[in-house]
Amino acid sequence: MLRGTGTIFWREVGQYFASPVAYLIAFALLLLTGLLFNSDLTFSLTQKPADPALIPSFLALAMVFFAPLLTMRMLAEESREGTLELLLTAPVSDTAVVIGKFLSAWFYYTILLLLTFTYQFILLAITQPDLGLAVSAYIGIWLYGGATLAVGLLFSSLTENQIVAAFLSMSVLLLLWLGDIAGEIVANLDLARVLRQLSLGGHFSTSFAVGLLRAEDVAYYAGIMVVMLFITTRIVESHRWR
Amino acid sequence: MIEVHKLTKRYGYHLAVDQISFEAHPGEVVGLLGPNGAGKTTTMRMLTGFMPPSEGSARIAGFDVLADSLEVRRRVGYLPERVPVYPDMTVKGYVTFWAKLRGVEKPRARVDAVLERVHLTDRRNTLVRNLSKGLRQRLGLAQALVHDPPIVILDEPTIGIDPQQVIEVREAVRDLGKHHTVLFSTHILSEAEQVCDRVVIINRGKIIAQGTPDTLRTQLQHGLSLYVEIAGAGKEAGAKLLKALTGVESVTAQGNGFVVRARTDVRGEVADRVTRAGYRLLELRPVAMTLEDIFLDLVGRGK
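YS: structure for the whole thing
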């Protein structure tokens, strides 16, 4: 592990638990998923079996809006408050700063994800859900979340303004997410396939969300994270040249 | 030990720092003195490893700021002009964070010691957002000193705090000079005189003078400015009277009186001449040389 990553990580985690925004996000997410789960249970009485991938599939859309809220502060605030100057003159590499921050966002997201396990426990108690599907959907949405947070962090490094950072990353994530339904708006089949391969949702909705674990999907999300973090590091580094 | 050799920073076509060279030795407080925009902050940013120099080199404790940036950063305590804080952390948490990030061995003991030193022990659990500006300045100092760096760089540490605190900070800086190499910047001449062992005056990115405050003062005080107010004489008559004195270089009207610049001490002659001409002398006092005057002076002489 790069020196300093742990220190940055724990400071950021502490920051999450000290800030009302993080609690509000957790509240909103649990409220929405709770309502959704409740209505799915009602349906499952008469029309279809309860879907263990329901919550992860909903999170795929929700993270388009929640990931930017979790990351918008991270670098924009440092740059506005001037603390970035101190971070960049501390004996740690720029990569350690970026990775520490990213991991803390992913860690907080993981906790949110663990909170939604409640629904799986309820399902386990009242019926016999397809556990394999549940596991694959959760692995998928965990990686998916990491990718969206990496995109959010990138935009946080681009501006001093948190709102701008959140808005830009939401727009980009929405585009990436919409690629999944490119087939419905693009007539050219090959082009639609390419777009779908590039999209966030395309690597989730027809694989992890239906119980498929494929190396290419894991590689896609890991790739997004690596590329985004690499660019973010370069942008942070560019503060030295301004 | 700070060794700066022909350090240059260019922003596009703009030369922010132009080939400056100076040294600071252990146990010495060196002041960077200059007006706003002179290149003080840019110089400091290059020395702290925040930004790379365009040309030239600088060594901190024997390490090159570009080639051994991490080693340099380990040995430098830096307080930027606007104290950077995390408002949601406690005083103790904030200082501990920087201690850990800079690899302090026993952070807890060091943090306690440094908080004691800047008199913030009783505020250790206060949120940083609730600190007054003066206390934030001390917190910034704590952050810069927590890893006990041999070199301390302070960017205008006395700006925007009340006079009592200014005195405290100046004392703290002088105190630091006993064990550390201190580089600090200011645009207040008297402050540099009080605090520094050596002063480096820079303007528009260039060093225009450097030396101990005493040498600089004797270099600079080759003339004298006086404010003279005379009752009874009109503007023109008064000016004519004063100009006729030997040693007087220029006379300019200011307010109800005149500012007289002279090569020698002409106070006696002025008083004498005014009374003998039948006017009454209302005011006669030396005008302290402002930093502006000195710059004009130095730049003028450089031509």
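YS: worth flagging: Chain A has a mean pLDDT of 91.
IM: good catch. Also The longest helix of chain A spans residues 54-81.
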